Protein: Phosphate propanoyltransferase
Organism: Paenibacillus contaminans
Amino acid sequence: MVHIPVGVSARHIHLSPIHAERLFGDKYQFTVIKPLSQPGQYAVEETVAIVGPKGRFDKVRILGPVRGRTQVEISRTDAFSIGVNPPVRESGDIYGTPGVTIVGPKGEVKLEQGVIVAARHIHFHTSDAIAFGVTDKQMLTVRLNGERPLVMEQVIARVSDTYALAMHIDTDEANAAGVRTGDTAVIIRA
């Protein structure tokens, strides 16, 4: 039985180049503080505030590199706190989602859409997918090996030559299972 490392994603934002400049200034260069589990992905020192109809979160971490479109990923609990109702979606699927206002040190952006609750998923390098016998977009059933073990259904397999093996869940899911980053999960049904 192969154990898959789990990464717990707290609320964060991916910025487009245009929004990064509007929030931080022309040609601003972010300060990388640590690499993430996926090759080429990283967290930066700089943060922004996100403001919804009922509340605000300050110090929301920016993840890089910049992307084609700005996307905010929050948990369901976060969504209740700021008064938005985002759907559960795969990263990048933001059509028809709610927006928020993003506040940076040099300006703000009224995001018309882009807020999601990220769907739980496992990144598989192509070679790992072959070894596990899974295909891209396949739905899996997975057991989280935390303080309160929990079985999760509808875990999306995401397969690419650029991925490293890791399961990503949000803070609500992690808290339900008593899981922290570095704990493991096992596929029980592919």
